[in-house]
Amino acid sequence: MYVIELVFTDDPRRLEARPAHRERLVALHAAGRLMLAGPWEDGSGALLVFRDDPAEELTDDPYYTTPGVIVHAVRELRPVVPMSSDS
Q1: CA angle at residue 50 from 57 to 26, to 5 degrees?
Q2: Which residues are CB-contacts of 3 (< 8 A; sequence separation ≥ 6)?
């Protein structure tokens, strides 16, 4: 399992790129690659949790290189408590 942590700046180009990015996230979730994704409540960034290595996704989705979006961290997570099946 891998986690991507994003940090957002005030650059408005991020908001212009967001709808296409969210469509892509829905498709990744439907395909079983993306477990969950969402912004922090304060709007400062977001967290995405992938089943497998998201390296390809980081190069294929232009959102990750859009001004206003900073990929702060990509880390492998080793959960000791699994997500419930209804998550």
Answers
A1: 70
A2: 47, 48, 49, 50, 73, 74, 75, 76, 77
CB 34 within 8 A of CB 25: yes
Q: Which residues of 30-65 are buried (b: 16+ CB within 10 A; e: fewer)?
A: eeeebbebeeeeeeebbebbbeeebeebeeebebbe
pLDDT tens-place string over residues 42-65:
999 999 999 999 999 999 999 999
pLDDT average, residue stretch 61-84? 92
How would you class 4 by CB atoms within 10 Å of its CB: exposed for 0-12, middle for 13-18, buried for 19 or more?
Answer: buried
Strands 2-8 and 45-50: antiparallel
pLDDT at 82: 78
What does the pLDDT read at residue 81? 87
Question: What is the CATH class of 2-76?
Answer: alpha beta
